[in-house]
Amino acid sequence: MEAREDDESRGRSALTRRGALLGMGAVAGFAAVDVGAFAYAGGWLRPDALTPGRFTDRFEDVYGRHDGFRRNHAKGLSATGTFESNGAGASICRAAVFKRGTVPVVGRFSLGGGLPDQPDKADTVRGLGLLFQMPDGQQWRTAMINLPVFTDSTPQGFYERLLAGKPQPDTGKPDPQRMAAFLQRHPETAAAMKIIKQSPPSAGFADSTFNGLNAFRFTSESGETFAVRWSVIPVDDGGQAAAPPSAARDYLFDDLIRAVAQRPVRWRLVLTVSEPGDPTDDATRPWPDTRRTIDAGTVTITAVQTEAPGNARDINFDPTVLPDGIALSDDPIPRARAGVYARSFTRRAEEPKSPSEVRV
C-alpha cells in the first residue's frame, strides 16, 4: 500500500495541464466534481502533504465509495444546447467563442456532495458545468455553482474544511468543536460563509444564477489583458415552479426536466471585469457590485438527458482547458482542481457503472 501511494505521489506531483488532458483520453467535457475539489498544485503544496490521490481518497472517506460516479457532485443530469454570442465579449477577449455567432454546448446540472442518490434539498449547492465547442476545435470548459463566493481561498483550506465537516457516526452531523476550530484558523472561510448565508437559493435550477467565482485572464485582439470572473444569469424562470422538498426525492431535477420539456431554458453569460486592487487569487472575496459587466450572449439549454455513455456522464470538466485568449490567473484553485478532476475521472472510468438516480 505504501509503495502504491509513493508511486501515485511521484506520478501526480508532476501533473500538468497536458497530463490532465491525457488522463481524460478522447472524452471532451467536464467533471462536475465541485468547484472546490482540489489537490496538489504544481509544487505549491508539499507532495508528502497532499496529492490528487489523497484528496480523492478524502472524498471517498467522507461520502463513501460509489463506483462509476464522480467523487463530488455525484448526482446529476446531462444537457445540451447552444451559446449565441452577441459579439460584446470580443472587446476584451480574442477567444473565438466571443465572436458573433452560435456554438454548441454540453452541460451538466448537479448537486454538491458525493452521494449519487441523495434527496434533493433547497440548500444543497447546485452546479452547472458547460463545455463550449468552437469551430476550430478549441474548447472552453467551466464549472459553476450557485454561491456568490467560494468557501475557501486555497486547496489546503478546502481539504481541511472537508475533514472538519465529516459527519460523525453517532449524530450524522459534523463535530461542532472541530468546525469551530477550523473557522478560527480560517477567518476567510468564516467571512465567506456569512456572505453565502445572506444569499438564499432560488426555487430551482432554471432560475438559479451560477457563478464561476475564480478569476481568469482575458486577452483582447490588441493584446490588452483583463482579469475577469463570469456568471450565467437566468433570462426568466424557465417556467419552473419548484415543489416543496417533500414532494419528491428528485424534485429539483424533476422540475428542471419539466421546464426544458416546455421550452428552452436560457441564461445570459455576464463577464465582470476587475479594477486595480481587486483580488484575483482569492475566490472567497467578492468584487464590488460597481465593476464593469459585459453581457456576452445567451446560453440556451434545449434538452436534458439521463447520464449515459456519450453524454456528460463521461466528460471531465478540467477548468484549465481554455481556448486561446483565456488563461489562468494567480488563483491557485483552478490549477489544483485539474489534478483531482483527472484522478477522479480515471478512477470512475475503470469502475462498473450504476444507473443514474435522475431519469428523463
From TrEMBL:
Gene3D superfamilies: 1.20.1280.120, Catalase core domain. One of its GO terms (molecular function) is peroxidase activity. Pfam families: Catalase. Keywords: Heme, Iron, Membrane, Metal-binding, Oxidoreductase, Peroxidase, Transmembrane, Transmembrane helix. PROSITE patterns: CATALASE_3 (PS51402). Its EC number is 1.11.1.-. Its cofactor is heme. It is an enzyme of class 1 (oxidoreductase). Residues 39-359 form the Catalase core domain. The chain crosses the membrane at residues 21-45. It comes from the Bacteria. Belongs to the catalase family. Has an organic peroxide-dependent peroxidase activity. This is Catalase-related peroxidase.
